[in-house]
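Per-record layout

source: Entomospira culicis
name: Arsenate reductase ArsC
length: 138
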Amino acid sequence: MKNKPKVAFICVHNSCRSQMAEALGKHFASDVFESYSAGTEVKPAINADAVRLMQRIYAIDMRERQYSKLIDALPQVDIVITMGCNVECPHVVAKHREDWGLADPSGEVDAIFIETIDRIERNIKDLARRIRVGEITL
């Protein structure tokens, strides 16, 4: 696909759900879209449980290329996916936006984290499919 759309995964702290979505977007859909993540606040590190479980499940080390960053660091994006902030979600200009309504698994047991990771994986694959077949027009 030429000129792949840029997708930004957004949540407040950019330390857990949006980071996992960025990593899974790169892992499962890099042929369809470019993945980025950001937030309105930054954390000193990506959530340790997210890092550990993404490494265990997918052999992805998010610490290699990812870090918590502000929305100002994003390139101009085509699609914005908010994770389900339950507070004031950051606004980023885009041609298409949707909210995935995911609860923050930070501080929860592994089973909750894994459930969130599974939902993100399904959503990533569905997003790639919708872009590929033209359901999302940009």
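summary: Residues 6-132 form a domain with the Rossmann fold fold (CATH 3.40.50.2300). Helices lie at 17-29, 48-58, 110-132.
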